[in-house]
Amino acid sequence: MSQPAHHVHRARLYKLASLAFDRPTGDLREAMIADEFDGQLIESAAMCGDGNLREHAERVAAESPDGAAEIDDHYSTYAALFGFEQGGEIKQYEIEYRPGTLVTSTDTLADIAGFYGAFDLSLEDGNRERVDHLCVELEFVSHLALQTAYLEESGDETGVDVVTNAQADFLEDHLGRWLPQFRDTVQAESDAPFYHALADLVVALVEADADWFDVEPTVFEETPPSPLEGVTEPGDESDFRCGTCGTTPSSTDRQQPGTEQFPIGDRDGPDRRPR
């Protein structure tokens, strides 16, 4: 059954989650101050028709910062938990939670990049972030969800099958496998209610989508040592961090329905806009 509106709201939830797990600067800061972030999050969770998802969204909204001073404090919290500049201990990269050697991790990164490349997506020019970063993976699923909405609205059944299979495979092989471990790490290593609630929401969203696409991701049971241990010198991770999260469509990609309502992710300041 064609449900383009459902996929638009799925897309917005993934997009908002990607923004919220990024540095709270630029448009996200403005959206939080104006309560647009909270309103869009609750609206889209409700429109997905999942009571559990809506409860998680309402909890995130209840814990989100409101004023400029609170958001300044929120930035400091983000930096302490996730930011490389303050030695944040919580990693936002898939291969940090995936068992295996550096070789298998390289294969994982290649597989993720292959998903992006299949849809003519790439990281922005100058971006030094890895393809397995949480914000990038969430934004990728958001992009596919919007494509699904567009293709369903256009009656393109073949196209719908392609993007549906891609979402199912990506959730089963990637996001669905490591997000529960990431959520557990956030719960155990931070006392930030907003990020606790946000991590719960993202896991609930991926679980709901796994049911929707009829897949069962095999969740990693424990967090292995970093596959980069012993390869880089202590503190030498500059090639694997920093930069702008997000996948960038090629200039030929058309605007998808509903994207004009989304705040735009921005790790480098408020001036970046879609090309």
Automatic annotation (TrEMBL):
Provide the residue span(s) of the region labelled Disordered: 219-275
What SUPFAM superfamilies has UniProt attached to this entry?
Answer: TorD-like
Q: Where is the composition biased (Basic and acidic residues)?
A: 265-275
* InterPro entries attached to this UniProt entry: DMSO/NO3_reduct_chaperone (IPR020945), TorD-like_sf (IPR036411), TorD/DmsD_chaperones (IPR050289)
UniProt entry keywords in alphabetical sequence: Chaperone
Pfam short name (any one): Nitrate_red_del
Query: What spans are recorded as compositionally biased (Polar residues)?
Result: 245-259
The superkingdom of the source organism is Archaea
List all membrane-crossing ranges.
none
Protein's UniProt keywords contain Metal-binding: no
What this protein is called in its record is: Molecular chaperone
Q: Species name for this entry?
A: Halosolutus amylolyticus
